[in-house]
Amino acid sequence: MDNNKITHMEMIQGIINRMGGNSFSLKGWAVTLVAGIFALASKDTDKMYFLIAYVPIVVFWFLDAYYLLQERLYRALYNKVRIMKEEDIDFDMNTNLPEIKSEKTVYSACLFSKTELGFYVPLALLVAVIIVLTYL
């Protein structure tokens, strides 16, 4: 592999790594905020405040799905650059190309992906269980 191709692939890989890091941070913030809301709502306040815990879950789920979408788009771009000839390397970082679009690179596919559902649905269910237990 020649130098331009390696450099371009390293640039794309750096973006992919940042998107993965952002996704990990969002999951941590979601758990932290839900726990914080429960800590504040447990002190002699109206029990309906527990429902506010769903706000960060939904917001972070949508934001996390956006980062997953971006990561998938850049992975597709990486694969495109991987098979390009050295003389065709132009360091283009455009992810709106039709050749990198697929059924996995749409927002709804990311929103309902296994990784998103596997984290946010159990978190929402845990919140529901805690709400039910506090009302008993």
Walkthrough of the structure:
This protein has 136 residues and is mainly alpha-helical. The chain has one domain. Helix content is 70%, strand content 0%. The chain has helices at 3-41, 54-82, 107-111, 114-135. The N and C termini lie far apart (65 Å).
Helix content: 55-70%
Mean pLDDT: 89
The secondary-structure element order is: HHHH
Q: Describe the global form.
A: elongated
For the report, how would you describe the main beta sheet? none
* First-to-last CA distance: 65 Å
Helical region count? 4
Q: What's the total count of β strands?
A: 0
Proportion of strand residues = under 5%
Radius of gyration over alpha carbons?
20 Å
Summary of the model, kept short:
Helix content is 70%, strand content 0%. With 136 residues, the protein is mostly helical.
Give the helices and strands, then pairings.
Blueprint: H1 3-41, H2 54-82, H3 107-111, H4 114-135
Keywords, separated by commas or semicolons:
4 helices; elongated; mainly alpha; 0% strand; 136 residues
